[in-house]
Design a protein that fits this description.
Elements (H helix, E strand, L loop, with lengths): L1 E2 L4 E3 L6 E6 L4 E6 L4 E6 L7 E7 L4 E6 L1 E2 L1
Parallel strand pairs: 1-8
Antiparallel strand pairs: 2-5, 3-6, 4-5, 6-7
Length: 70
């Protein structure tokens, strides 16, 4: 679950987020380049899931289904 209105932090233990892929317009993404983490917020207040793919600096790939909640 992620917040409907606020930023939600996404981190990867012992690694750094390198890239995030998803449908443009579904979310706002901010990156913390120094720490290798990202912050995401839906563009509208909806319960529709956001589907993302993260890749890390160590070469791992993770598909995420994020559900906005209050």
């Amino acid at each position: 679950s992620i917040s409907k209105q606020n930023l939600t932090r996404i981190t990867v233990k012992d690694d750094r987020v390198a890239n995030v892929f998803g449908i443009t317009g579904e979310y706002v993404l901010e990156a913390d380049e120094e720490l290798g983490q990202v912050f995401i917020r839906p563009t509208t207040e909806t319960n529709k899931p956001i589907h993302l793919t993260l890749t890390t600096e160590k070469g791992h790939t993770q598909d995420l289904r994020l559900i906005p909640k209050d």
